[in-house]
Design brief:
Layout lengths: L3 H17 L10 E3 L8 E4 L4 H4 L3 H15 L3 E7 L2 E6 L1 H13 L12 E5 L11 H19 L3 E8 L4 H13 L5 H4 L3 H25 L4 H7 L1 H14 L3 H25 L5 E4 H4 L4 H10 L3 E2 L5 E4 L7 E5 L7 H16 L3 E7 L3 H13 L8 E6 L2 E2 L15 H19 L7 H21 L7 E2 L2 H4 L7 H20 L18 H11 L1 H11 L3 H20 L8 H24 L9
Parallel strand pairs: 5-6, 5-11, 6-7, 11-12, 13-14
Antiparallel strand pairs: 1-2, 2-4, 3-4, 8-9, 9-10
């Protein structure tokens, strides 16, 4: 890849040496894309050089500009606006940049770094199906993983399934009381939906019991603690932890239903993992670390047997690590799994994709690991993302008011189908092709709408807005790709060969729109680096939109297939072909497929 900013900075440093006999650090010079309202390609900020030029900003800019034109064949002209030197590159320079892009099959992919990064995402509970909040988590985890791979890192995608605890016991109890032996096979329900219905049923039982106790004179707080169903669920958890065969058998059966349901949803979303951990197998891992912390004197045991870490001197609070009965908490498990993973994989970074309501948890996790002597604690990164809200407000699992992931995927399919059929351009597609296209568009709309928002921001999800074929949406980018492919098919059908046409004669020249497209294409590797550094696939989503938008403006103003100059026609075909190539690469990082036709 040719980096124009670095090129200008290096040549400007040479100019300073030649003109003023002074050394300038090229890496410290400020070069940026010229603003649209000014003529030029890139702008050098002259003000920092005045101390060596001992002249006005205008004269300094003019002297450097003239030196560049005289000594660099790549520079075709310049103009100075106050302290800003706007530089224009020659057609031959842009030919070289574009040829480099077009000839690089791995354009955008960074060289291997040798670093290993683990990304933990999804982490569902086995008492309910995946919902809209999980979708944002999964799509972020997947796209961040792909983005880090594009940056040259080895990435391990892992899932930690929360398959034990009071939540699953509540579903199990409701199934025993009201399930009537229902199974996914007998009910026709996905297993995760069946178990989720049981969780909602338990909550209804529990609320009725609380109301009855309150009506009998008990305070609400006491009633919530003493409701018979809650006591029974707690007893079931105790039995599970002590290996009761009947409870374990029911737990395995109902979790098995949920796993099968999760797998179907993951498959529909195009999500997979390199490894899946289960809390039932990891929740005891941290106990040895708790003992180590006691021996080191950084943890303390209370009279009731509970173990705590006092973080008040660090501006935090006291953190429970083991309950008085010896059972572990989430923090205990996370300490143990972190140690296990860093030992097993020699990780350079461990990213947890978890909502921002857990910010404090990960602050504490890193601090305790640091106190235990693990320097790699600094390599833990919490990718904290905002919640997904709906026009009608927040979702509540206990009340069954969540937006179910499976229902949403199907709704996106149906909306894509209706919208596409209204456009009336699919008459030459058979039913199977149409079905695949509707799923591609529906998923593309869903994924793009969620990923284009910076992870840290809370977002409002509107399915109708997400599937608009205009504006900053997945279908708009998909339609752009299909339009380019249509142009190329028409060119092939008329016998126009354009392979390798990456240069245009200087006397023919390039339009300002073509130069702008080459500039945007050339930014792709830098955008991958920028997105990777920020752990934000939104950078790539919005880059893809900018590129698609630029193509559509170019297509509107430029008669590509009606161009009479054969060399320019072939050049333009290669140009749009490479726009399609980069769009495919960018959107694949987001897990989005682009259609050949639509």
């Amino acid at each position: 890849m040719t980096n124009p900013e670095n090129f200008i900075a290096a040549k400007a440093a040479e100019a300073v040496k030649s003109l003023y006999n002074a050394d300038a650090d090229a890496s410290a010079l400020q070069v940026q894309v010229t603003r649209k309202e000014f003529e030029g390609d890139y702008t050098l900020v002259v003000f920092p050089l005045l101390k060596v030029s001992r002249s006005t900003p205008e004269n300094t800019g003019k002297s450097i500009g003239e030196w560049l034109v005289s000594n660099c064949p790549e520079v075709s002209g310049y103009n100075v606006v106050k302290g800003f030197l706007n530089i224009s590159f020659s057609t031959s320079f842009w030919n070289g940049v574009f040829a480099s892009i077009a000839s690089d099959a791995d354009f955008g992919q960074h060289a291997p770094t040798g670093k290993t990064i683990m990304v933990e995402f999804s982490s569902p509970n086995t008492n309910k199906p995946l919902h809209l909040g999980h979708i944002r988590n999964n799509l972020l985890g997947w796209s961040v993983s792909k983005l880090l791979e594009a940056n040259g890192h080895r990435v391990l995608k892992v899932n930690l399934v929360n398959d034990r605890g009071i939540h699953i016991c509540k579903s199990m109890l409701a199934w025993l009381r009201q399930g009537n032996g229902e199974t996914p096979e007998t009910s026709g329900k996905k297993g995760d939906h069946l178990v989720g219905d049981c969780y909602v049923a338990f909550n209804n039982i529990y609320k009725a019991e609380v109301d009855e106790l309150v009506a009998g004179g008990m305070s609400k707080e006491e009633a919530e603690k003493n409701a018979p169903s809650l006591k029974e669920a707690q007893e079931m958890l105790y039995k599970w932890e002590h290996g009761d065969e009947e409870v374990i058998a029911l737990w395995k059966k109902m979790n098995g239903w949920v796993y099968a349901g999760f797998d179907k949803t993951y498959s529909d979303l195009g999500i997979s993992f390199d490894r899946t951990y289960y809390e039932s197998q990891t929740y005891l891992l941290g106990k040895a670390l708790v003992q180590k912390g006691l021996e080191m004197g950084i943890f303390e045991k209370e009279a009731d047997g509970s173990v705590w870490c006092d973080l008040t001197s660090d501006g935090l609070d006291r953190k429970l690590l083991l309950r008085g009965d010896g059972t572990s908490v989430y923090m205990t498990q996370d300490l143990g799994t972190a140690e296990q993973r860093f030992k097993e994989y020699s990780l350079d970074e461990h990213i947890y994709v978890v909502g921002n309501e857990q910010n404090y948890h990960f602050q504490v996790l890193k601090l305790i690991l640091k106190k235990l002597g693990f320097d790699w604690a600094d390599s833990i990164y919490h990718l904290s993302y905002g919640m997904v809200e709906l026009p009608q407000g927040k979702m509540k699992s206990r009340e069954g008011t969540v937006v179910d992931a499976d229902d949403l995927i199907e709704k996106m399919y149906n909306t894509a189908r209706e919208t596409s059929l209204e456009l009336g351009k699919l008459d030459d597609m058979d039913e199977k092709e149409q079905d695949a296209l509707f799923r591609m568009i529906g998923l593309g709309a869903l994924k793009y709408f969620i990923i284009k928002v910076d992870p840290k921001k809370t977002m409002l999800f509107d399915p109708k807005e997400s599937i608009d074929f205009n504006g900053n949406t997945g279908p708009f980018i998909q339609y752009t790709h299909a339009r380019i492919k249509s142009i190329l098919r028409k060119a092939d059908a008329t016998g126009i060969s354009h392979a390798g046409a990456t240069e245009i004669a200087p006397d023919t020249g390039l339009s300002s729109k073509e130069i702008r497209i080459i500039k945007i294409l050339n930014q792709f590797p830098d955008k991958i680096a920028e997105g990777g550094a920020a752990h934000s696939p939104a950078v790539i989503a919005n880059y893809a939109y900018d590129l698609a938008k630029e193509f559509n403006q170019y297509y509107h103003d430029t008669p590509i297939l009606r161009e009479e100059n054969g060399a320019l026609l072939r050049y333009r075909l290669v140009l749009v072909e490479n726009i399609a190539k980069v769009l495919v690469k960018a959107m694949s990082i987001l897990g989005i497929t682009l259609p050949e036709r639509m």
